[in-house]
């Protein structure tokens, strides 16, 4: 059974500092991994999707890496801004299926 | 031009009642999902439909019954609501195995 863990559960940084969010998963037989952002009381917004054959994906200040063999992904957010404050969720898609398994999320607060 | 929409946004009801949540997507996706996010913010899949056929059913009580009248709609009906059903329910859609797009969620409160 796939288990996804995100550490830390919460993170507080001053504005301008780089953010490093970690995600680990127990079963390396994944199809892809997605990072989402969730604002309080809102739905989820997809940030990045990394296919199992890829090592990383970049979008603006966001960079996500994937090491499938060790079951890890890291989301880097450069030069954090107060608007980056949200909960970040990683989720893995099981190979040959549509089941997305989520981690518990990391709640990020960027202080002005 | 909302991609995935859900109604209602909030639902407050008494224990024992039956309620439905509706979901519609205009993205042309062939797969739709229902997720439950509990008070600890943990998101878990409940159901997945592909082209109107059930493909994932994750040990959800029989009181929960999804219905997909067509590819663009996936509704969730809940019978005999219990206190533990209180949560935020999210609908999502995707083309098979690609990025999932989520609706805004329906916050269900059972009193």
Give the overall average pLDDT of chain B. Answer: 91
> Runs of chain A with pLDDT <50, length 5+?
none
Q: Any idea what the radius of gyration of chain A is?
A: 13 Å
Q: N-to-C terminal Cα separation of chain A, in Å? A: 41 Å
Structure description:
The complex is a heterodimer of chains A (112) and B (111). Chain A has 112 residues and is mostly beta strands. In chain A, strands 2, 4, 5, 9, 10 and 11 form a 6-stranded mixed β-sheet that branches. Chain A has a 5-stranded antiparallel β-sheet with strand order 1-3-8-7-6, with no helix packed on it. Chain A starts with a strand and ends with a strand. Chain A has no helices and 11 strands. Chain B is mostly beta strands. Chain B has strands at 4-7, 10-13, 19-25, 31-37, 43-50, 53-57, 64-70, 73-78, 87-94, 101-102, 106-110. In chain B, strands 2, 4, 5, 6, 9, 10 and 11 form a 7-stranded mixed β-sheet that branches. In chain B, strands 1-3-8-7 form a 4-stranded antiparallel β-sheet, with no helix packed on it. Chain B starts with a strand and ends with a strand. The model of chain B has no long low-confidence stretch (mean pLDDT 91). The chains are: A mainly beta (112), B mainly beta (111).
């Amino acid at each position: 059974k796939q288990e996804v863990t995100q550490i830390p559960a919460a993170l507080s940084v001053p504005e301008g500092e780089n953010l490093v969010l970690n995600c680990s998963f127990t079963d390396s037989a994944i199809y892809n991994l997605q990072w989402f952002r969730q604002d309080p009381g809102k739905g989820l917004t997809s940030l990045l999707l990394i296919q199992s054959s890829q090592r990383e994906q970049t979008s603006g200040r966001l960079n996500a890496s994937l090491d499938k063999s060790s079951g890890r992904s890291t989301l880097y957010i450069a030069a954090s801004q107060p608007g980056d404050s949200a909960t970040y969720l990683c989720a893995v898609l099981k190979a040959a299926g549509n089941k997305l398994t989520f981690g518990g999320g990391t709640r990020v607060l960027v202080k002005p | 031009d909302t991609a995935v929409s859900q109604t209602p946004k909030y639902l407050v009801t008494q224990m024992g009642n039956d309620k439905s949540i509706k979901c519609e997507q205009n993205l042309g996706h062939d797969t739709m999902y229902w997720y439950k996010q509990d008070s600890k913010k943990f998101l878990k899949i409940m159901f997945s439909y592909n082209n109107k056929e059930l493909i994932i059913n994750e040990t959800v009580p029989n009181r929960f019954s999804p219905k997909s009248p067509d590819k663009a709609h996936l509704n969730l009906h809940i019978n005999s609501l219990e206190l533990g059903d209180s949560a935020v329910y999210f609908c999502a859609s995707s083309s098979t195995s690609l990025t999932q797009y989520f609706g805004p969620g329906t916050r269900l409160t059972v009193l």
